[in-house]
């Protein structure tokens, strides 16, 4: 059973400004990946800094791939079988299947790094507005005295 929450009231302050709110809401619903594997968290760690943390226990850094193309972040894994292993698994409780997860990034969000620690893949994101997009204050000049318009007789 899938439960959907309406988070619209939380996003009212960002209407027309940024797609980050809709990105967060739609990430788990898109791409036909209804299995929820692997589980992930999205954290806000600063004003313009975010982190996607994904549980990837059993995968080595060589088996994981983090790719950014345009405004799309793709995290995938290809589990390779190790040749020469004589053991057989009697019960498999730790999933080790291949996966691919796609995240739609908001405008001006850049991936700044990725790290693997204790079975968790951390992908660091930072929102960097270009100077032209940043708000700026315009100084209001005070005009002193009145200037009359003169008309010359023709």
UniProtKB/TrEMBL annotation:
Keywords: Stress response
CDD domains according to UniProt: ACD_IbpA-B_like
Domain SHSP: residue ranges: 31-143
Domain of life, per lineage: Bacteria
InterPro entries reported for this sequence: A-crystallin/Hsp20_dom, ACD_IbpA/B, HSP20-like_chaperone
PANTHER family reported in the protein's UniProt record: PTHR47062, SMALL HEAT SHOCK PROTEIN IBPA (PTHR47062:SF1)
Family designation: Belongs to the small heat shock protein (HSP20) family.
Name of the protein in its database record: Hsp20 family protein
Naturally occurring in which organism (per UniProt): Kaustia mangrovi
């Amino acid at each position: 059973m899938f439960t959907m929450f309406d988070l619209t009231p939380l996003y009212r302050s960002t209407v027309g400004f940024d797609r980050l709110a809709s990105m967060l809401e739609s990430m788990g619903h898109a791409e036909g990946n209804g299995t929820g594997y692997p589980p992930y968290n999205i954290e806000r760690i600063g004003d313009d800094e975010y982190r996607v943390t994904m549980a990837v226990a059993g995968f080595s850094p060589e088996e994981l791939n983090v790719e950014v193309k345009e405004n799309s972040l793709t995290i995938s894994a290809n589990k390779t079988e190790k040749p020469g292993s004589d053991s057989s698994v009697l019960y498999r409780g730790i999933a080790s299947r291949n996966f691919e997860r796609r995240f739609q990034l908001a405008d001006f969000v850049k991936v700044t790094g990725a790290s693997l620690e204790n079975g968790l893949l951390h992908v660091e994101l930072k929102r960097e507005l270009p100077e032209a997009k940043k708000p700026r204050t315009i100084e209001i000049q005070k005009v002193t005295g009145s200037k009359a318009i003169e008309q010359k007789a023709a």
